[in-house]
Design brief:
Length: about 300
């Protein structure tokens, strides 16, 4: 099987080059750094968060415990969100009021997801294989959401529900492309909160960034302009993933040997990708990434079933 062959090749490569024990660690660090560097380059071009690609691909191709991979995935998502959120808030693009309201629900669900995910892998027999299969199935769902969702740059709001109106989920920012100040109002909060709760649960359980779902919910359901949806999503991630990270840290599932090269690789790669994005057609790259996600989903399901002795 292709996944097994690639994984064995990586392990054998380390063994061939390895002379001393410390050199083995250095090689794993370099391999992981290069791997995450490529993910970081792809992420800003395609509009897909690095965590969504990192967790399934690392789980499929590297011989790391899935708990450590998920912990690193949360660290990657949290790092990117923290680096961009302050500037987005300063420009008025990220709605702090909306993020706080949404986070009251999604933080709780992300903590539940983290505890549940770690309990399954550590307490249930063959739990890590069930989680790997569930990760692959979740990727299929993410793939479908990304394919089906059609984002609207400036949605029109016909009516604001009473709860959203009382909470004053509105704002404004200066839009350079129009040369004017754009005002917006968010709506349908009661229908959106269950969706955000589900997103938080998935993000905590699998260590995935939640931008793939936050943006469509904010944009299509709550009628947030696309810029506001993306920016507010980053702010929500800082709250969700920070809460989920504490669970992984408390359980000893955040391993610096994996987290440090991964965060560095994605961060540096994202800067390179941001410069390339101006010259490359995002639609083509996006199609390639969707293909990678579909491939990773199949690999993770196959890996989980193989671990259970089904295939």
């Amino acid at each position: 099987m292709l996944r097994v062959k690639i994984k064995k090749f990586i392990i054998e490569l380390v063994r061939i080059i390895n002379g001393d024990r410390w050199m083995e660690y250095v090689l794993w660090l370099l391999l992981l750094f290069v791997f995450t560097l490529l993910i970081g380059i792809i992420a800003p071009i395609s509009g897909v968060g690095g965590g969504v690609l990192f967790v399934p691909l690392t789980t499929a191709f590297f011989p790391f415990n899935i708990d450590f991979v998920r912990g690193a995935g949360l660290a990657i998502a949290l790092t990117s969100a923290l680096s961009s959120s302050p500037r987005l808030m300063e420009k008025g693009l990220a709605s702090l009021r909306a993020a706080i309201v949404i986070a009251t629900v999604s933080i709780a669900s992300s903590i539940v997801g983290s505890v549940l995910g770690l309990w399954i892998t550590n307490e249930m027999p063959e739990g890590k294989h069930y989680i790997t299969i569930a990760l692959g199935i979740s990727l299929f769902f993410i793939f479908a959401v990304m394919v089906k969702s059609k984002r609207v740059e400036f949605p029109e709001v016909e009516k604001v529900d009473s709860i959203s109106e009382k909470l004053d989920l509105s704002g404004k920012w200066y839009e350079p492309s129009r040369g004017e100040v754009i005002e917006y109002r968010l709506t349908r909060l009661p229908y959106s909160l269950p969706a955000f709760a589900g997103v938080g649960l998935v993000a905590g359980m699998f260590g995935l960034g939640a931008g793939w779902a936050n943006v469509p919910v904010l944009n299509l359901l709550m009628c947030a302009p696309l810029r506001v949806a993306v920016s507010t999503s980053m702010l929500i991630i800082t709250l969700n993933d920070a809460a989920a990270m504490w669970v992984y840290i408390a359980k000893g599932a955040v391993l610096p040997l994996i987290v440090v090269p991964s965060v560095l690789g994605v961060t540096i790669g994202a800067r390179i990708g941001a410069m390339i994005a101006e010259r490359v057609r995002p639609r083509i790259i996006r199609m390639v990434v969707l293909g990678i996600m579909l491939f990773a989903a199949l690999l993770d399901i196959e890996k989980g079933l193989a671990g259970l002795g089904v295939v």
